[in-house]
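Lecture notes, unit on protein representations.

Consider one protein chain, 230 amino acids long.
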Amino acid sequence: MSGLSGRLQNLVTRIARAASDAGRDPAGIRLLAVSKTWPAESVREAAAAGQHAFGENYVQEGVAKVEALADLGLEWHFIGPLQSNKTRPVANSFAWVHSIDRLKIAQRLSEQRDVFLPPLQVCIQVNVSGEESKSGVSPAELPELARSVAALPRLKLRGLMTIPEPTSDVALQRERFATLRRLMAQLRADGLDLDTLSMGMSDDLEAAIAEGSTMVRVGTAIFGSRNYTN
């Protein structure tokens, strides 16, 4: 078993253990392998080890990998900040977008999604820790944005995503993830058909799973530490 294959298997075991500790079925938690900055060859290796869904943060890099690995039939998720002038390639190369934080981006994705493709699955990014530098809509602004996004054609609003401020305080991790869970519960109570909580990464996935995450986004624990100078 290669280093990457071994790390991937260890991560799957870690997710299953966290689910068991939370009294949840591990089958209800999807693993999204965050492959940003890693070459297509690394993605191909992870796919050979059984991983199917991959997340990218940068438009040009992500689209290039989607094209280079088209033969594998992978599921691609865009999870990074998205500028309005870069929505077209994302709208037509990815199956999911997790990082919608304003209506203009959603409208452009809707308008630019090829009518012959399935609806683009989307999540709204929520800033649950209140950082000024962090992307995401505020909890107060979420209901209006969610209703507007849900009404757009060629998009399917699936749920919410968050990237809270890093902390080693497990209680604080859980509090922030619980905020997102409660926000989605309120939207569901208001009639929106949502099923996805995209939350939890390498350092806090146990807390996220304990609070109901249905999709964890993990890169370092699979691929190793990134070298951003390349």
